[in-house]
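Subject line: Sequence and fold of a protein, written as structure tokens
Enclosed: The protein record, placed directly beneath this head.
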Amino acid sequence: MHTDVNALFANLWQDYVAVTPSAKKVHQLLGSSQQDDVINDHIALRTFNLEKVSLDKLAAHFLALGYEECGEYHFEAKKLYAKHFEHPDRNQPKVFISELLLDKCSAFLRDTITELVAQIPDEAVTADNFLYSGTHWQVSQATYEKLLEESEYAAWVAAWGYRANHFTVSVNELASFDSLEQVNTELKHAGFLLNTSGGEIKGTPDVYLEQSSTLADLHPVQFSDTVATIPSCFYEFARRYPLSNGMLYSGFVAASADKIFESTNAR
């Protein structure tokens, strides 16, 4: 397990931008003003509710660094369960981890994913680099396509394995932008495509959180039988609003997150 939270996020970022080159461009675009630091609000990780790689196994890497469990979320239609974690140092990014509930999926999907996960060595899951280790298996393009018909989420993890599904710009920390609308406009002017599922902006000040995201990059992946270009990862943007106590809301809104998941849908 990592002993340094900054080193963990630096490694996660390097792995993420390797398959999400647009994220580096967005980072440069929004950080081009001298007064703007691009601060990471949170990352998200995907997994399955199998004992070896459960949400709790991924979370252990963050709990060891002082993170604490702060909220749980249910996504009935997508068959997902999630939790988010926060560090006592509020400058550290939040972490959102979800898992696909295989018992709610078809026998084909359940059997396929169980076989893939069985190929991960037990010691790999607790290794320092597990959260950015990619795949520990080979899957054919046909298997990926069949998984995709049932669950975009399962197909994505089968293709990309363990890595940050997205990083998130904290819009509150961007001195040059007063709103998420302004950020979105800047991104569109620069040619980035946004996720419009549920509207460009998901959430409202009434739920203390507004979110938007780019569509995932299209990036080559090595299947067992071929190389194909498929959606990889995306970049999210979050604006948080203060609660009655003056503190910024630090949780997540399930209805909005549900649509953010669709940033990796095929286009």
Observations:
- The chain has one domain: 5-261.
